[in-house]
Design brief:
GO molecular function: ATP binding; protein serine/threonine kinase activity
Distance between the termini: 13 Å
InterPro entries: Kinase-like_dom_sf (IPR011009), Plant_Ser_Thr_Prot_Kinase (IPR050823), Prot_kinase_dom (IPR000719), Protein_kinase_ATP_BS (IPR017441), Ser-Thr/Tyr_kinase_cat_dom (IPR001245), Ser/Thr_kinase_AS (IPR008271)
Pfam families: PK_Tyr_Ser-Thr
Keywords: ATP-binding, Cell membrane, Kinase, Membrane, Nucleotide-binding, Serine/threonine-protein kinase, Transferase
CATH architecture of the largest domain: Orthogonal Bundle
Number of domains: 2
Largest sheet: 6 strands, mixed
Protein name: non-specific serine/threonine protein kinase
Strand content: 5-15%
Shape: globular
Length: about 425
């Protein structure tokens, strides 16, 4: 599996950990071709409009641009590298938004004179690192999926650049960054319960939209670093490099190489490579737990019994009395007792070991929507602060603050040989 690019700071894995199932290496999963291999064949990606991805993957940058322009027309802008250099001041470090396995992301500003029909706006420009751990195939997948899927809870792709070996993507700028930063960055102000609920609902609607498409899409990389927030905390899913088309016809699943992030990936997917929309539901349940507890899905800096969030929280989720012991202490009791209980049970169902027991996203959205109006704050009902013993259970890790280890991402899952 992979270490993706949406968290801050993002730190790409080194090449020495690249996919070696025989050695059970932990690696990014998105192994990047070297410059000498970059033009060789890349595995095909499913299409919506009948694009031949196998041909696109084998094509020159000129051919790729022609095919994409013919497919998307005015929906996406084909930028020149010189234009993107100009709006980011040659990808200046002063405009760096983040860095990951994909490469770097820089803020830029487009004015209306750059292209006809393009409004003036800030943008995020993602620059592919040829020597990184993610590749042309993921770049192409993002262009295809986000070029055709438009929804208020999916980040908007404005355009792309494909010149020689250079691959870039241009997105709408999301001013509040990722959910990961707000939950785990020590300098951030704690998100209120109502905002956390709003984010959960928005992200759920994004997944629901993908799963409910005419040809269902499995996102495959749902996690806090891939949930971006606009100025009013509307959640939008980003990073579609690992997205897959769902099973067709009578097939119950898609068999694919295991990729994603350890701690978020559904156990049956990790063990078998069988991918379904219920794999996304599991990941959503993990994010719900992160929203409730303020803890990361995996945190190696905590006591061994508390390192895996799903395992640690499971005994607490069905007990109203014990639930408060795992709630994020930074909420300071400003959360709905009934809402937390319902969210905990929902997270428990979503992370069920049996995929058939997990709810579908429409049911998840309906459950979360019902929690909006609940006002029974724990602090007003004598359920905060937690007891001294409980406070010890959720105690702040030394030198890490309530949000856990700053800037560290979970280790990626060991990939398999499946394709």
């Amino acid at each position: 599996m992979k270490e993706t690019k949406s968290s801050t700071p993002w730190r790409p894995l080194t090449a020495k950990y690249c996919c070696s199932p025989e050695k059970q290496a932990i690696c990014g999963g998105r192994c990047r071709p070297s410059k000498s291999e970059f033009s060789k064949n890349v595995a095909p990606v499913p299409s919506f409009r009948g694009l031949s991805f196998s041909e696109l993957s084998r094509s020159s940058s000129t051919r790729i641009n022609e095919d994409l322009a013919q497919t998307f027309g005015g929906d996406l802008f084909d930028f020149h590298l010189s234009e993107l250099r100009a709006i980011t001041q040659n990808f200046s470090g002063h405009f760096l938004l983040g860095e990951g396995g994909f490469g770097t992301v820089h803020k830029g500003y487009i004015d209306e004179s750059l292209r006809q029909g393009l409004k003036a706006q800030p943008v995020a420009v993602k620059l592919l690192d040829i020597e990184g751990l993610q590749g042309h195939r993921e770049w192409l997948a993002e262009v295809i999926f986000l070029g055709q899927l438009r929804y208020k809870h999916l980040v908007k792709l404005i355009g792309y650049c494909c010149e020689d070996e250079e691959r870039l993507l241009v997105y709408e700028f999301m001013p509040r960054g990722s959910l990961e930063n707000h939950l785990f960055k020590r300098i951030s102000i704690s998100l209120p319960w109502g905002i956390r609920l709003k984010i959960a609902i928005g992200a759920a609607k994004g997944l629901g939209f993908l799963h409910g498409a005419e040809k269902p899409v499995i996102y495959r990389d749902f996690k806090t670093s891939n949930i971006l927030l606009d100025s009013d905390f509307t959640a939008k899913l980003s990073d579609f490099g690992l997205a897959k088309m769902g099973p067709e016809g009578s097939k119950s699943h898609v068999t694919t190489r295991v990729m994603g992030t350890y701690g978020y990936a559904a156990p049956e997917y990790v063990s078998t490579g069988h991918l379904t929309t219920k794999s996304d539901v599991y990941s959503f349940g993990v994010v719900l737990l992160e929203l409730m507890t303020g803890r990361r899905a995996v945190d190696k800096f905590r006591p061994k019994a508390e390192q895996n969030l799903v395992d640690w929280t499971r005994p607490y989720l069905s007990s109203s009395r014990r639930l408060r012991c795992i709630m994020d202490p930074r909420l300071a009791g400003q959360y709905s007792i009934k809402g937390a209980k319902e969210m905990a049970l929902l997270a428990l169902y979503c992370t069920s070991l049996n995929p058939k027991d997990r709810p579908k996203m429409p049911s998840v959205i309906e459950t979360l929507e019902r929690l909006r109006e609940l006002k029974d704050m724990a602090v007003s009902h004598g359920q905060w602060p937690a007891t001294p013993k409980s406070a010890q259970v959720i105690g702040v890790h030394p030198n890490k603050g309530a949000a856990g280890h700053h800037g560290r991402k979970p280790s990626p899952v060991t990939p398999t040989n499946k394709t």
